[in-house]
Amino acid sequence: MKKPVIAIDGYSSTGKSSISKIIAEKLGIVHLDTGALYRGITWFALQNCVDENGKINLEELFKSFHLIELEFKKEEDELILYLNKINVSKEIRAAEVSDNVSLIAKQKEVRDFLLEAQRSIARNGGVIMDGRDIGTVVLPDADFKFFLTASIEERTKRRYNELLSMGFEADETQVRENLMERDRIDSEREISPLRQAEDAIVIDNTNLTKSQTIESILQHLIKIN
Ligand code: C5P
What we know:
With 225 residues, the chain is α/β, with parallel strands linked by helices. It is 49% helix and 17% strand.
């Protein structure tokens, strides 16, 4: 039997990736955190394509796509992002990347560059993919679609604690502003904006723990099956 294709979209820091990772383990399927791909491109741009004022030069970035090799490697049950053979899992979570990623992700050239790579991973089924446009654009025929949301206060707290646990310095006000600004740019962009697919199940997990959110998703998967 073909394993399911599951799309998880939603606002920043609603727990999409960590929840998807656990569901993937439970179902024996692959998890792809598509945000990591956009963060990887942004990290590359900050390393290689900035002008004398430190701003990303988009033309330069678009000309450099052929120099970017993205690869996920499974290490201890986790998919680790390698960019040009470098493990960039930690670097892509830095504030500088978070501050620039939505501006990079709204570029048509960047979205086109990543679209086929994402689709090809789902071709044989057995994948849970999380992002902003998975249920609407990347995998519109996914077997299951979920849309996660939570209050900005709760999301700020989660992201702030995550950054501290990764060893980054963090400021709660800045974290909150970054989340709001990213959500605004992601929702208002012309191409593949962040929005709920019409056939997605919405889960507000403001008052749910991670385990409760996972349980709720698994219950839906059983019910629909
Ligand atoms: O999921 P994460 O918060 O790491 O994603 C970082 C950014 O990547 C988002 O704010 C958004 O700008 C972009 N993104 C996107 N489409 C996706 C996944 C992420 O535009 N499918």
